[in-house]
Amino acid sequence: MFRIFSTLLISSSLLVAQDFTKEVAKNDDVSFIDPSDGYFDVSSFLDHPYGFIPIVNPITEPAIGEGLALIPMFVSRPEGQHRPNFTALGAMKTNNGTKGFFGGYSGYFFDEQLRITAGATSTSLNLDFYGFGAYDLLDGRSLHYNLDIVGGLLGAEWRIKDSKWYIGARYLYGEVDAQLQNQHDFHLLPNGTFLRGIGRQDTLSSILFELTHDTRDNVFTPLDGHFAELSLLWNDELIGATESFQRLTTSYYFYQPIVENTLFFGIKSEAKHNMGDSPFYALPSVQLRGAPRTRYQGTTVAYSESELRWQFHPRWSVLGFGGVGASWGKNSQFDDANTTFTGGTGLRYLLAKDHSMHVGVDLAYGEEGPAVYIQFGSAWSRP
């Protein structure tokens, strides 16, 4: 049964490269079977210069509907380098009209002292706006709006000597056009309500400063260590932005083996606070499996999710997770938070043992109903 299911699960991401990988295997020392256990494994393929994962990823995010993303992801880890380099190109489309193209790069230089990141996108998102925090601005309804985004980012991160501390900065630029999908929906807003950013094109021009402490044993599916980060985003008219606002973010991810090689615990906690004249779509939202991405939005958000994974087989594992999140409006008190609870279960397969890369599926449930997520690596991915 496990082998049958592994074939169904993995074929969604690797079938499009079937002919290519057969030719590679004929001409190079590449095997897609791990000789130690006889199971499917892509480690030796990824370790070649042309190694990549042709991800065909179903999209089931409730905020944008159901669809498909095609993402060839090239992974390389030069000899002696602990962290891998990534290059990805992709396209996606969903049944609510959302579509887009994107690309990204993350690579290390000078013995992993320097990491460079870059990305670009042209995307059209169809989303729903529900209000801020517990303030029911729309009386239980939502505004359907579209975001057309063209932009990119360029950043650098420097490791402080030989420590686990990193300091970095990124520049982000975007042209964003926010329009209601139905102009008659303006009547849903209370009289005199001004929704900053709707019905116009904005320029986002931001510098993001980051201070990070990272002791994770790997970036794909961490088993031990932690990731802690404090960041400040500064979007300002002085550097070409339409509006001036700031966002302070604290993140902490913790991973701990409970029973060696068998039981693993993890927890993610984040808090974000916006200051200044932020467009409504740039306000943070609760990010939990089972909560639509824009459903719990506010000037301030905080959320935490824990996960327990049981590696009951050398290749297979099951997990359970649960989370809680809250959002506040600009003038809300702590007791006025819009709170949500989520939970679910998942199944994982160890696709690349040498890289500790697990893939699988999560079934989550929140107050808006069930949701399914396809996962490559950790659900809390941080390169």
UniProtKB/TrEMBL annotation:
Keywords (A to Z) from UniProt: Membrane
Main location (coarse class): membrane
Annotated compartments: Membrane
InterPro entries: Bac_surfAg_D15
Pfam families named in the record: Omp85 (PF01103)
Gene3D superfamilies: membrane protein fhac: a member of the omp85/tpsb transporter family (2.40.160.50)
Domain Bacterial surface antigen (D15): 134-341
Protein name: BamA/TamA family outer membrane protein
Species classification: Bacteria, Pseudomonadati, Verrucomicrobiota, Verrucomicrobiia, Verrucomicrobiales
